[in-house]
Request: fold
Amino acid sequence: DISCDEIVDDRHSENMRPLILLALLPTIGSWAASGGAGRAWSPTRAAASMVLLDPERDAALAVPERANRMLDSFLENFDGHFDNYAQVAANEAAGLAPREGGGHEHIHCVLRHVPLLGASEGAGGHVLASYYFNGNPTFVFRERLYAFEAVASDEQFGACVRMAIYKLREPVTAQLRAAGGLTGYSADDVAFSADADLSPSQRVEGADVFWRRCGDRFEGHMRTESITVISERSGDELVVRDDVALWEDALWVNDRGHDAATGELVYGNMHGVPYKMARVDESHWTVTGDPPPSS
Reply:
């Protein structure tokens, strides 16, 4: 079994010092009953007591229910807006530029639960994830559809939530943009279909993330340490590593991609420090697209 990792939780610190940022290496991927008086013993009564008090049987019956509760708890937090502007400001104050400079790009993530036509009755939920740069909702650089299921007893992760990742079809992307992008979207504008949008051709193979409860957070890991994918932009092979953590008030993403041929960093943080996105409400300037407040 994979144990929960020890994550240095500095979500509530006012200042993320450069030493902390440089020292925080990829911690996300690298957490007998007795009868009453006068009652005679009998084999039948003893057998009934053994069934009622069988801890292994009781635990086995409780596992699916526990996994479903885990899924409900996870999806309750896996929704809304998350942004790492505070981390970027701390990087800039420390003289850390993105990528080769050891810092981070300014990334915003918005997660929205969406209905799927034709989804099975037992489907665990579907979330549209949109990622954009610099607090500007028009600068979307990645969109994915996530499909979830509760897993009672995975051979590697135990009780967990499995997240399958799907690329969006071009017609869906066009509908999203025509509907106003991230601010004007509604379920009436874009109709997701289980047959089309969850087809094997849209699934990112090998990239499923398995989320487990670890104390006050959920941790997510892929089945393997890395996978090789074809870049949608360059067509080159990339070696991708992805470890994530979710709290009620934060989403940390340690997503790194290296050129398979040269080993050069294509995206992500060179030190393996996660993108530490804090939950923000819908009035935040990174949600509305307004200019950042003057300091």
User: Anything to note?
Assistant: Helices lie at 18-23, 43-52, 55-77, 85-93, 170-178, 194-197, 285-288. The chain is about 20% helix and 30% strand.
